[in-house]
Design brief:
The complex is a heterodimer of chains A (1043) and B (461). Helix content of chain A is 26%, strand content 19%. In chain A, strand 32 and strand 33 form a beta hairpin. In chain A, helix 8 crosses helix 13 and helix 11 packs parallel to helix 13. Chain B is globular, with a radius of gyration of 23 Å. Chain B is built from 17 helices and no strands. Chain B has one domain. With 461 residues, chain B is mainly alpha-helical. The chains are: A alpha/beta (1043), B mainly alpha (461). Chains A and B meet through strand 30, helix 27 and strand 34 of A and helix 6, helix 7 and helix 12 of B.
Chain lengths: 1043, 461
């Protein structure tokens, strides 16, 4: 309050002096009561009144002029001290003491500069993703998986990686609002309390809650309390991407809701019926499924591989990894499922298939029958309940239950069918039965099924309250809006996909005036005396719940162990005994083969719109279309020809593709979409991606993409038929694409083989390893024929020699590594326009190559980080020596020295270098500064950057090892990309150590260098992709080529 | 003084035009040329041109200022095309400068007397062209305020030397040497003429200024002796520069691994191209100059014809280089070289390649015809075409090679932005501004060397 710096400000000019209302006596009394060395810094502070100066002036009129002189502070103090000596304040001639607070007692375990890791979990629409979060000085900066948790095994998906940025998003809602105007929390609490009191009288009639799928047992327990307190209240669920089909399918097959838990490592044959279990966490257990599935394709111990058949409609990364892929329109998957079921012994009316589809089904059925008990049929989340039921029945008939699939009680708390739930709510709202609607999370005004008219129905609700992390479209119609805390800011809990319970502990105090969902819900659960609880902390709530679950004397120890580990030990849900009966399978919907089918899918990086304002995810390219900052509408290349639109052609190097716009009309509603010719997409169908097109999405997300929810009705949430598509004449949509060319031409960046080749050790007539490595033996690493000294021979790399191996078999293109790298290395986001110019900054990119016919190509993903070449072409051309070679083999980038001539980027044949064309890093926004990794420089304008093999992690490990006087252990350093990769596709380590994991990988016959013929001697090498085709079945690509 | 009609008439077949117009004396030569400088009446066209150039120069400064303020992203460059207009323009301007040095130094050593009327302004053209060129390697860096001194081996850089294996550092040495030697050569050549102007000056101020520039030249035998020695020495120094400077600039590309850059024949290819465009620029300057100032007696048809012949000769070398580039690309059977050839012929920028062939190979074949070589305006048109072609050549080399290289997923496109264009056009304006100022304040033709062409100057050895 007082000015501490300027001595001048202690002096009050005579003009400012107000009439004295202060008694000297009072001041002296106050001083005499002062305890301890409480010196006053300024007289204002002491006197609490500016008039004191005037008082002094009156005391010492002769010296009044001295105070105007800025130099005479000392004199002033002397004078004042002299006068105050009478008041008992002695020795007032020194500089007043100012208390600073040293870190005398450091917070527990904090060593500034060393990160601390805490286990927690991220709630994701009905289950949680187990995490370990790295914090620097009590700020979470990086998310990793929890290595001890079965649902993670150390890896995460891209949404968990990007969730850190959401915590620090400057566009988060900061404060409570009432009808759009800021209000203090107390006011809101009062208002809610009075509402609760009013509702008590009617037993909660008219009180409705709307949430997404919740897996938090504490929340469930709280809800039960709410329902006890208000028996007439109802809890509705709505997630735009929900598990309704799975629920309904489970009910059809088993008569009750069950969740399927897949154990893919035990499966030799996996059949996916439009199931995308290799993309992201919308498939519960994705991380574990990907890991387990890829265990069967490592080819490191023996020469066996599992086999993946995928019958899918919209292309997905799972289809990309398939050994055999069948392209179907969305409704045709049902027929194929029925036919397949009939062939494996399930009593089902076979669907009508064409010749190719029948051949496919026959081969797949034969393979399944050959591997009874060691196979699995996985139904797609977005397929009809019938397909789910059929899959369950098939698994039962094949003896897979208990081997490759198990059924557990649903992980979601009190599961219901969301479509029905929200329809009920809207009907009740329209009937005027809803008095108070509490929306906890979500954005129903934006993403509720459009035919329900949620927005209009809302108008009939008397009191609408929203708890949400962002102010979104729903906020506009709410009375009260309360900011929701991020999951890293509060206590909660949840179940992973297999039922394992985790306690979610916060990493940071809430940044804004938000409330945790438990704290908020507590208002509606009056305590024993009937008072609504407005001040309960989420910690107490969660702990109270778990006390009821573990009411033993050692609860404290158990609690600490649970919070420390990140999960409740042995809490995986037990497998239930189920039997599948397909009594009442609904008849298949007969789809008009000429009508255009619509598939609604969550966007690969924005999901259902939850991440619309997450800049990292906006700028992460979608795995198959490689575009950013927009959603596209996928159609098949053949349809593009019909409409006379341009194809994905070889001349298409354009980074910003001006795409024609399609107007899609579905059930009377229209939306304009940028069309995208996607190889492998079924004909007569269109895939619309959800989540974009939000109007109120912060500075990052607003204005991106189209709103697919505008045409998404409640009875065709994932699959619909009967859309009409018109091509708009002159309008174009500028997309920001990071990859303009999808074929390999005559080059072979990805080496491909079949399992047969691998076993026979012969590829294209040559020795397998030689052919994979390159045409000439000279391409092999080892003694090169070169005029330059061989650094390896000369013993240059004495101690460690870092290397990396990337298994192209395992990479599923999920982009988790790209987002992890961005989080770990403070990589800037450049925005759509700059991506259009070709200036995206991600250090690792995942190239997608299509090979074969456009109707059903083979797709390969290739992550490309810096190759860290031993003969790096970038090093000799830098005029200032800003990129140099270390004794451990790294190509080090010296940001300070770089003047930005960009010669190194021109000379890099892999084009892994990224340049800061502008000042892309946000130096200003305060909240973003919190989330940066302090171990990595934030690069400025004009500086080149690239993957560094996470040198900050290498250095940390080296320091630790040197302190302990030992070598760095294999596996001690995990690069960010390696750590999060669900399939362990990336391995990093010391190649001088023959026993390290990376050395063993590099000894594989599948190993090759990218562009080995350039003699760059890259340290990052690849393992060739090996497919395991069924010899009785041609691949879809071959067949389509013949056609 | 012969009129335009007389001196620019093509002589009959077999007769070559004179090097200098008939009827000239020491006095007329001196007065005519010095008159351009010493006149009180600046021609109106000069004022108009300079005004326009100042405006363009202002635009240039705005663009440079914005570049330094915002960053190099205001241009069209990206990953993979890290070099765009800036480097194309750099090589183009440096190439243009080569003709001046060739005329001054090499033609001197070959004792070609006809060089005397064009060498002065050609040297000035070289210096101004190198000045334009030198701007780009600095401005195109991400941090020019550091590049300005970190690229030089001076003891101000925290003890870190430049990285000498980099062709960009070789460029620094080559271009700065080139500028220094050219400037010295030009400066020394001007001394006797400055003395002449000093002696003919009408006002005191002018006399003092030229007096300082003349450095006490008396025209004594001793002075002339020293002068000739110095001139010969500098010619000897400058001659290898004609070949080395652009070779070094070409190594910027040849040393890299990019297909389309990674070729050993770049040095001679670039040097030939440099001389090609240099002579085109000499003609582009000489033809309007001789017309506007009535210098047809001094820059005669003979000079134009000779320049045309040199252009034709170097043009054939350039054409041969293009053919070899494509042939070796195909003959190598290397998949990346083949792809590069394919990209030139069928890629997204292939129309630039075809324009290049038209401008650099096909149209200049008209120089075989004396009627083209001997008609100033036709020669001017061909020169403009050649200069355009040479710019396109650098565009094809820089942008088309970078645009598509090894990994197909990294292929990208490049397009210039208005800032690219403003800086490019700005250098034209800056260059023309400097040139016109030069014409006004210094004798654009070497007076004393012209006098040595007259029969009166022949001295028996």
């Amino acid at each position: 309050m007082s000015n501490i710096n300027d001595s001048n400000s202690n002096l009050i000019s005579p003009g400012e002096v107000k009439p004295a209302s202060l008694e000297l006596e009072t001041v002296r009394k106050r001083l005499s009561e002062a305890k301890g060395p409480k010196f006053w810094r300024t007289l204002e502070e002491l006197a609490d009144q500016p008039a004191f100066g005037e008082l002094l002036e009156r005391e010492f009129p002769r010296h009044a002029t001295e105070w105007v002189d800025p130099v005479s502070r000392r004199n002033f103090l002397k004078l004042a001290g002299a006068s105050m000596a009478l008041a008992g304040l002695a020795g007032c001639t020194r500089q007043p003491l100012e208390q600073i607070l040293p870190y005398v007692r450091q917070p527990e375990q904090l060593i500034p500069g060393k990160p601390i890791f805490y286990a927690t979990a991220m709630p994701f629409h009905g289950h949680v993703l187990p995490l370990v979060v790295e914090t620097h000085e009590f700020r979470p900066t990086k998310v990793e998986g929890n290595p001890q948790h079965t649902a993670s095994l150390g890896a995460t998906d891209l949404f968990a990686q990007a969730s850190i940025l959401d915590l620090y998003d400057p566009d988060r809602s900061n404060y409570v609002t009432h009808l759009g105007e800021g209000r203090p929390w107390g006011e809101c609490a009062l208002a809610l309390q009075s509402e609760v009191a009013a509702l008590k009288a009617t037993q909660g009639t008219g009180l409705r809650f709307l949430t997404g799928a919740m897996s938090s047992p504490t929340f469930g327990w709280q809800m039960k309390a709410v329902q006890r307190a208000f028996p007439q209240s109802k809890w509705h669920r709505w997630d735009p991407v929900n598990r309704d089909n799975a629920r309904a399918g489970s009910k059809l097959a088993f008569g009750a809701y069950y969740d399927a838990v897949y154990k893919l490592e035990a499966a030799a044959v996996v059949v996916s019926l439009d199931a995308d279990f290799l993309s992201g966490s919308w498939f519960p257990g994705f991380v574990r499924c990907a890991r387990d599935f890829m265990r069967g394709r490592k080819l490191d111990k023996d020469r066996t591989m599992n086999r993946l058949y995928v019958a899918e409609s919209s292309p997905s990364t799972t289809g990309a990894k398939a050994d055999h892929r069948l392209v179907l329109r969305p409704s045709e998957v049902d027929s194929v499922a029925r036919a397949l079921a009939a062939k494996v012994g399930v009593a089902a009316q076979g669907g009508r298939l064409n010749e190719d589809q029948q051949k496919w089904v026959d081969a797949v059925a034969a393979d399944l029958m050959d591997h009874k008990g060691k196979c699995v049929v996985v139904p797609g989340e977005f397929q009809s309940p019938a397909v789910h039921a059929l899959a369950h029945a098939m698994n039962a008939a094949l003896g897979n239950v208990g081997q490759t699939v198990a059924y557990i009680d649903p992980v979601e708390v009190d599961p219901v069918e969301h479509g029905q739930s929200i329809r009920e709510l809207v009907d009740d709202m329209n009937a005027g039965k809803v008095r108070t609607l509490v929306i906890l999370g979500g954005n129903p005004v934006f993403n509720a099924p459009v035919d329900l008219g949620f927005e209009n129905a809302l108008g009939k609700v008397a009191l609408r309250v929203q708890l949400s992390i962002y102010k979104n479209e729903t906020t506009d119609l709410m009375h009260w809006h309360v900011p929701e805390n991020h999951y890293l800011e509060g206590w909660s809990d949840g179940h992973a996909y297999d039922g394992t319970a985790s306690v979610i502990q916060p990493m940071i105090m809430p940044l804004y005036e938000g409330r945790n969902v438990h704290e908020f819900l507590a208002i509606f659960t009056p305590d024993e005396s009937g008072t609504p609880q407005t001040g309960v902390s989420s910690h107490d709530l969660v702990q109270t719940y778990w006390k009821t679950q573990h009411p033993t004397a050692d609860f404290e120890a158990w609690w600490r162990r649970t919070v420390h580990d990140g999960f409740v030990a042995d809490s995986a849900a037990p497998a239930r005994q189920v039997s599948a009966k397909l009594a009442s399978l609904p008849a298949p919907a007969v789809a008009n083969p000429n009508a255009i089918e619509v598939a609604f899918r969550p966007d690969p990086t924005i999901y259902d719109g939850s991440f619309i304002n997450n800049a990292w995810l906006q700028e992460t390219p979608k795995p198959l279309s490689r575009n950013t900052w927009d959603n596209v509408a996928m159609v098949s290349p053949a349809m593009a020809a019909v409409w006379k639109l341009n194809q994905v052609s070889d001349d298409n190097d354009h980074q910003s593709d001006a795409q024609r716009i399609l107007e899609v009309e579905f059930q009377g509603r229209k939306v304009e979409v940028p069309y995208w010719p996607q190889p492998g997409h079924p004909d007569n169908a269109i895939t619309l991606f959800l989540g974009y097109g939000q109007r109120k999405a912060g500075r990052v997300g607003s204005g991106t993409g189209y709103d697919a929810y505008k045409v998404r009705p409640s009875e065709a949430q994932y699959i619909g038929s009967g859309a009409t598509i018109t091509v708009s004449k002159d309008k174009y949509w500028d997309l920001a694409i990071t990859q303009g060319h999808f074929s390999m031409d005559a080059r072979e960046p990805v080496r491909v083989a079949t399992l047969e080749d691998f076993i026979q050790n012969k590829l294209d007539g040559e020795n397998f390893a030689d052919r994979v490595r390159g045409e000439a033996p000279n391409d092999r690493p080892g003694k090169p024929e070169s005029l330059y000294p061989d650094f390896r021979d000369k013993g240059f790399y004495q101690n460690y020699a870092w290397g990396m191996s990337i298994d192209l078999n395992s990479c599923v293109g999920c982009q988790a590594c790209a987002v992890a790298c961005q989080a770990e290395n403070n990589i800037s986001v450049v925005g759509k326009e700059q991506v259009q110019r070709g200036r995206e900054m991600q250090w690792i990119r995942i190239d997608a190559y299509y090979e074969g016919s456009p109707a059903n190509p083979n797709v390969y993903f290739q992550p490309v980080p810096c190759m860290q070449c031993e003969n790096a072409p970038c090093e000799p051309v830098c005029p200032v020596g800003a990129t140099i070679h270390s004794t451990e083999g790294l190509n080090d980038m010296v940001y300070n020295r770089c003047v930005g001539t960009r010669y190194c980027s021109n000379n890099c044949p892999y084009k892994v270098r990224r340049f800061n064309f502008f000042l892309f890093a946000d130096y200003e926004t305060p909240s973003l500064k919190l989330g940066r990794n302090p171990d990595v420089t934030v690069r400025s304008r004009g500086v080149m950057e690239k993957c560094t093999y996470c040198i900050q992690r290498i250095t940390q490990a080296r320091i630790a090892s040197e302190k302990e006087e030992r070598q760095i252990r294999d596996g001690e350093i995990k690069t960010a990309c390696q750590q999060v990769c669900p399939t362990e596709a990336i391995i990093f380590g010391d190649i001088n150590n023959k026993d390290s994991a990376v050395s063993k990988r590099k000894n594989s016959p599948r190993e090759y260098q990218l562009l080995a013929e350039l003699n760059t001697r890259p340290r990052t090498t690849y393992l060739a992709a090996v497919r395991n085709p069924n010899p009785k079945l041609e691949s879809g690509s071959e067949k389509a080529e013949k056609a | 003084m012969a009129t335009l009609g007389q001196i620019d008439v093509r002589p009959p077949k077999g007769v070559r035009p004179p090097i200098i117009g008939p009827g000239q004396t020491f006095g007329t030569v001196t007065d005519r040329i010095a008159g351009i400088v010493l006149t009180k009446h600046t021609p109106v066209f000069w004022i108009l041109v300079v005004a326009l150039c100042l405006a363009i120069f202002g635009m240039f400064n705005t663009a440079v200022g914005y570049l330094l303020f915002k960053g190099v992203g205001i241009w069209g460059i990206n990953i993979p095309v890290g070099w765009g207009f800036a480097i194309v323009n750099f090589v183009w301007w440096i190439g243009i400068g080569h003709a001046g040095t060739l005329i001054s130094a090499i033609l001197l050593l070959f004792k070609q007397g006809w060089r005397t009327s064009i060498n002065r302004f050609a040297e000035a053209m070289t210096i101004f062209a190198v000045m334009q060129a030198g701007l780009f390697p600095l401005l195109h860096t991400g941090r020019p305020w550091l590049a300005a001194y970190w690229l030089f081996p001076i003891p101000l850089t925290m003890g870190v030397w430049p990285q000498f294996r980099s062709p960009l550092i070789w460029d620094v040495f080559a271009v700065s040497t080139y500028f220094t030697v050219s400037f010295l050569f030009w400066g020394i050549g001007l001394i006797p003429d400055f003395a002449n102007l000093r002696d003919s000056a009408k006002t005191l101020v002018v006399r003092r200024i030229y007096g300082m520039l003349a450095m006490g030249w008396r025209g004594s035998a001793r002075h002339w002796n020293r002068y000739e020695t110095a001139y010969m020495l500098l010619a000897g120094l400058a001659t290898p520069l004609v070949l080395s400077v652009h070779s070094v600039v070409s190594l910027d590309f040849a040393v890299s691994v990019v297909p389309g850059w990674h070729t050993t024949f770049f040095p001679p290819y670039f040097v030939a191209g440099a001389i090609y465009s240099g002579f085109a620029m000499v003609l582009m300057l000489a033809i309007p100059f001789r017309y506007l100032y009535g210098m047809q007696d001094f820059i005669t048809l003979r000079h134009l014809q000779n320049c045309g012949k040199l252009m034709l000769a170097t043009g054939q070398i350039v054409a041969y280089s293009y053919a070899m580039e494509m042939f070796i690309g195909w003959y190598s059977n290397d998949r990346y070289e083949l792809a590069m050839v394919n990209n030139r012929l069928h890629g997204p920028y292939s129309h630039y390649y075809y324009m290049l062939i038209l401008c650099n190979i096909l149209i200049p074949q008209s120089l075989w015809f004396n009627s083209i070589r001997s008609t100033p305006w036709r020669l001017f048109v061909v020169s403009v075409v050649v200069n355009t072609g040479m710019w396109l050549e650098r565009f094809v080399i820089v942008v088309m090679s970078l645009q598509r290289d090894y990994i197909p997923t990294s292929w990208g496109m490049y397009w210039y932005t208005k800032w690219d264009m403003m800086i490019f056009v700005g250098t034209w304006g800056f260059f023309t501004l400097l040139f016109f100022i030069f014409i006004r304040v210094m004798p654009p033709i070497s007076i004393f060397e012209m006098r040595s062409l007259l029969p009166q100057a022949k001295v028996k050895e």
